[in-house]
Write a structure and sequence with these properties.
It contains 17 helices and 24 strands. The strands form four sheets. Strands 9-8-7-10-6-11-12-13-14-15-16 form an eleven-stranded mixed β-sheet, sandwiched between helices. Strands 17-18-22-19-20-21 form a six-stranded mixed β-sheet, with helices on both faces. Strands 1-5-4-3-2 form a five-stranded mixed β-sheet, sandwiched between helices. The structure holds ligand UAG, adenosine-5'-triphosphate, 2,6-diaminopimelic acid and magnesium ion (MG). It is an enzyme of class 6 (ligase).
């Protein structure tokens, strides 16, 4: 491909050099540049991509996209024959460049985008299961992993950068995938990662406190999320029981978009009634504009009913009938690290769950409270270099809804462990029953030793994660495997 083809529909200020120069790949990280690559300089939060132009050229870059003109450019043009393109916003340009480079693959399949604070991973997996059971070829992009027709690809991000994203869509098109279901994080919407994704369906789950380190307040957090619903071509599926969902509904109603609402009341287009919740499954009557009938899911909790309603709404929009929905729902298995049970012969219910926000923790503990016969023992911590405002709130929720709490490390990353734990303790009344054991292994061990028959041990915050980040080191760590090992002894 040549540079001119890659720049289609991109508003740039100026090209310095030959616009037909050959481009074999695109890259926003100089360390990964190869021969004849286009390097896009991004001014980041930690450093500035413009600092690495020489590095990229040394590695073989044939062209460079810049947001600001630096002194060295003329030298690189003359000495290295490198072409420069000056744009207004590199992140926006990167998104279009990535889509152009892979020939706009997201237009060649159906894309469902799921956004909201909690439930994205769960919903994408539920939709994926229902569709696969009905012989759809599926793609999945999200926190746990990416998938193309059942083949699993590792990921380190919920929503990848535009280059990785369009590369994945391209692979999906090559593999004749019909529907890709993807998680759309607020960071990705704000940082233009998904600007050029052709979404058919958008789903809103809920909005509660998280990521305020990045977004600063709930208003701008919501404003990032709402962007998705201006981008969809077929339908937007909104949980209007959620306060922010209702606001989003009222706002997007004004634009020409088809909306399906879901929730637990008859004002919604798709809703659940006559709910029966047990400790390991729930059942309810599903009402849709075209059909209704009883649904049973083998995942507990009211929040899971919301997740399944969102998933059914998406499948309904794709044209699945009741029998197809039922067939899909019957094959649903719990999602890894989401209310996942750890088997044991001691009669304790050990649950590993990814609750890392106040709302998620409250939901999971309320669900447990609904069926527990013994004590609730909760082990949790909070991630470093993430929203610190949620820490005391989670401390309060954990101690109020549990009988005993062990506060431990999550992924401290570059933050001091004691600082994170002190933030959590600020929300806890000193009369509450809790202890601090920083080492997560020891904390889980203590909880399991303390538990008796009929007790529930909730290990929250890391769910499916197979690592723990302390400082800049990444250690192997898996809550479920640790619990299994301790319980085996
Ligand atoms: C806040 C955020 O999203 N930051 C992203 C942002 O980082 P940044 O702007 O700080 O980048 P930077 O480190 O300053 O570097 C600037 C540029 O210089 C480049 N560089 C840097 C060094 C070098 O030697 N050569 C070079 O070219 C970098 O590749 C980058 O393009 O741009 C980088 C590249 O574009 C991303 O990798 C980085 O994601 C970081 C790793 C991250 O942790 N993001 C999290 C918060 C995130 O996105 N989370 C959401 C989900 C959360 C949820 O599920 O709720 C997600 O979608 O995963
Ligand atoms: N609909 C929901 N409402 C509230 N809490 C939920 C809901 N679904 C799941 N949860 C809780 O939130 C946790 C995270 O769920 P999930 O991984 O599906 O969310 P996510 O939106 O993908 O999160 P992330 O932003 O980290 O990717 C679960 O482990 C559970 O505790
Ligand atoms: N996607 C979320 C996951 C948090 C999980 C928790 N274990 C942590 O590390 O903070 C984030 O990056 O904020
Ligand atoms: Mg997720």
């Amino acid at each position: 491909m040549n540079l001119k083809e890659i720049l289609i529909d991109i508003e740039f200020d100026k090209i310095f050099g030959d616009k037909f120069v050959k481009v074999d790949g695109i890259c926003y990280d100089s360390r990964k540049v190869e021969k004849n690559y286009l390097f896009v300089c991004i001014e980041g939060f930690k450093t500035d991509g413009h600092k690495y132009i020489k590095n990229a050229i040394d590695k073989g870059a044939s062209a460079v996209v810049i947001e600001k003109i630096t002194e060295d450019i003329e030298k690189y043009i003359e000495e290295n024959n490198v072409v420069f393109v000056k744009v207004n916003n590199s992140r926006k340009a990167l998104s279009k460049i990535a889509s152009n480079f892979y020939k706009n693959p997201s237009k060649k399949l159906k894309v469902i985008g799921v956004t909201g604070t909690n439930g994205k991973t769960s919903i994408t997996h539920l939709i994926n299961t229902i569709l696969r059971e009905n012989n759809y070829k599926c793609g999945l992009i999200g926190t746990i992993q990416n998938e193309i027709s059942g083949k699993v690809y590792k990921t380190s991000r919920t929503t990848p950068e535009a280059v990785e994203l369009h590369n994945l869509f391209n692979e999906m098109v090559q593999n004749k995938v019909d529907v890709c279901t993807m998680e759309v994080s607020s960071h990705s919407l704000d940082l233009h990662r998904v600007d050029d994704v052709n979404f058919n369906i958008g789903i809103f789950t809920n909005l509660t406190e998280d990521h305020l380190d990045y977004h600063k307040d709930m208003r701008s957090y919501k404003n990032a999320k709402i962007k998705l619903f201006y981008k969809t071509s077929d339908v937007n599926i909104i949980n209007i029981d959620d306060k922010y969902g209702k606001e989003i509904y009222d706002e997007i109603k004004k634009i020409n978009t088809k909306i399906l609402t879901y929730g637990l009341n008859s004002r919604c287009d798709i809703y659940a009634k006559d709910i029966d919740m047990k400790d390991s499954f729930s059942s309810f009557t599903l009402i849709t504009p075209k059909y209704s009938g009883r649904i049973r899911i083998n995942i507990p909790g009211l929040f899971s009913i919301y997740n399944i309603l969102a998933s059914i709404s998406a499948c309904y929009s794709l044209g699945l009938n009741y029998e197809q929905i039922l067939k899909g729902v019957n094959s649903i298995k719990p999602v890894r690290g989401r209310f996942e049970l750890v088997e044991n012969d001691r009669g304790i219910k050990v649950i590993v769950d990814y609750a890392h926000t106040p709302d998620a923790l409250r939901n999971v503990l309320s669900t447990i409270k609904g069926f527990v016969r013994g004590k609730i023992i909760t082990v949790f911590g909070c991630g470093g270099e993430r929203d610190s405002a949620k820490r005391p709130v989670m401390g309060k929720i954990a101690t109020e809804l549990s009988d005993y709490v062990i506060i431990t490390n999550d992924n401290p990353r570059g933050e001091k462990e004691d600082k994170i734990i002190n933030d959590i303790l600020k929300g806890i009344d000193f009369n509450e029953k809790y202890t601090v054991i920083k080492d997560r292994y020891e904390a889980i061990k203590k909880a399991l030793e303390f538990a008796n028959k009929d007790d529930v041990v909730l290990i929250a915050g890391k769910g499916h994660e197979t690592y723990q980040i302390i400082g800049d080191r990444v250690y192997d760590f898996n809550d479920k495997a640790v619990a299994e090992e301790i319980l085996r002894r």
